Amino acid sequence: MSVDRALGSRLPSVPVPPPGPASRALAGRLARVESRNVTFVSHDWPVFWDEASGTNVRDADGNVFIDLTAAFGVALLGHSSRLVRAAIARQAERVIHGMGDIHPPTAKLELLERLCALMPWPESRAVLSSTGSEAVETALKTTHMATGKPGVLAFEGGYHGLTLGSLAVTERAHFRGPFVRRAYGGVAFAPFPDTRIDGADAGAEALERIRQMLRAGAPNGDPIGAVIIEPVQARGGARIAPHGFMAELCDLARDAGALVVADEIMTGLGRCGAVLASERVGLRPDVVCLGKALGGGLPLSACVAGADVMDAWPVSEGEAMHTSTFLGHPLACAVGSDFLDLVATGDVCELAEREGSRLLEALRDELAQADGVASVRGIGLLLGIELGRGGSRLAGAGAAIAREALGRGLIALPAGDDGHVLELTPPLGLTEEQTAFVARELSAAIRGALEPAGHGA
C-alpha cells in the first residue's frame, strides 16, 4: 500500500466494517503461530495496523482511525514522529548495538546526562533497561539495597508490570492468580482513595490504614522498605487521589523508614502536563520509574533516584549485579535524548496540558447528560470516562464501548479492575476538528454500547 502523505491529522474513514477481511485473514495466520493467550480475537476484534502517522492509524483493510491510546501511551509525540525517525537514521549510521555495561556507547551517556538533569534531586543516578517492568524490578532492588527492608507497600488497582517482581506489586487478580505462589509474599496492598465511591473521608481513611500497615509490616512479616505508587493510576482507570493524599503518604513513608517509588512509566515526561506527574499531585518520590514515551516507539525505560539512594548499589568490580544485553541500546538512547531535549523546553508539557484540557472539556460537554457515565476526569493527556449507574460500576462497559468506537474510527481501551472505565491516552497533535469528532463519536459509542440491546442495562 502506498504511503498517504496526508495521514497524521485526518478524521477517520471506515469504509470496511472492522475487522475487515484482511484483518480477519491476518488473525487466522497469527493464531497458528502465537500463544492463544496473547492476542484476543473475536468476530469484532482486532484490526491489524498497517501504517501509523501522527494521531492516525491505517489498518490492513485501508480504514483510517484516530488513535486514542498512543499505542499504550508510547507515541506521545505522535506515530512515526519526524524527531524519532531522524534520531534513528542518524544513530543507525554510527552504532546500532553496543555493550552497555562493558564498553558503553556514547549515546547511552548522552541520554543519562539529559535524563538526570531533569530529575528533582541535586544529583541523580539511573539504571537503563528496555521495559517498564524492568524499571520497576530495578526500583524494588534499589530500595531493598538502600533500606535493608524487603517488604513493599503497594496499592489496590495499581499496575506495575508482569515480571515476577513487578507482578508481586500489581494488584490485579487476573494477572496474579495463576502465579501467586511464585510471587514474593511480602507485599501489603493499601486502598487507593476514591472519594466518588468511598466518600469525602476516603483519603484520611486510606492514610490511617497505611499508617497501620507500615507499622505492622508485610503479610509475611518482612519490614516495609518501599512504597510504590502511580501518581495517577492509569490502567487502574485514570484514578486521581484526593488533594493532599500524596504529600501525607510521603510523610508516613519517611517516618517509617521507607522509600517512595513513583511509577511514572505512563504518567511521566509530559503526558500529564509536567516532567513528572508527581509534581502535580504532591508526591515527593525517592525513586522514579520511567518508560513508554521515553523511547518514542523503541524499547527504553529507566529507574532514576538521588545519588544517596542509588549509591546503595556497590561499585562494579567487573560484573554488574543488575544488567541486561540491551542496556543503553544506542538507537533507543538517541531517540530518548532528542525527546528529552524537547521535554526540557517545556513544549511537550504545555501542549499536553492544553490539548488534554480541550479534550476533557469537550467530553464533559458532550457527556454531561449521558446515561451510564458516572465521571469524566483527567490530567493532561491521561483521561478516563467511568461507566456506572447509581453508585455501581458497569463491569465490562469499557470494552463494549471500545468495540463500538472502533466501528466509528476511534481506537480506545478499557481500564479499571472491572473494565468499567474507557481510558484515553492520545498522542499530541489532536486538532480541534478531531477533538470535536472524538467527543461526538464517543458519546454515540457510549449510547450504542450501553443501550439495552448493547449492554443489557
Description:
- Helix content is 38%, strand content 16%.
- The two termini are 42 Å apart.
- The chain has a domain at 95-313 and 322-344: Type I PLP-dependent aspartate aminotransferase-like (Major domain) (Aspartate Aminotransferase, domain 2, 3-Layer(aba) Sandwich), CATH 3.40.640.10.
- It contains 17 helices and 16 strands.
- A hairpin with a 4-residue loop joins strand 2 (56-59) and strand 3 (64-67).
- It is an alpha/beta fold.
- It has a seven-stranded mixed sheet with strand order 4-10-9-8-7-5-6, with helices on both faces. Strands 11, 12, 13, 15 and 16 form a five-stranded antiparallel sheet that branches.
- Mean pLDDT is 95; it is low at 453-457.
- The protein has helices at residues 21-31, 70-73, 82-92, 106-118, 132-147, 164-168, 173-176, 195-198, 202-216, 245-255, 277-281, 307-310, 330-344, 347-367, 397-407, 432-450, 452-455; strands spanning 49-53, 56-59, 64-67, 124-129, 151-155, 187-190, 224-229, 259-263, 287-290, 301-306, 373-379, 382-389, 392-393, 410-411, 413-415, 421-424.
- The chain is globular, with a radius of gyration of 22 Å.
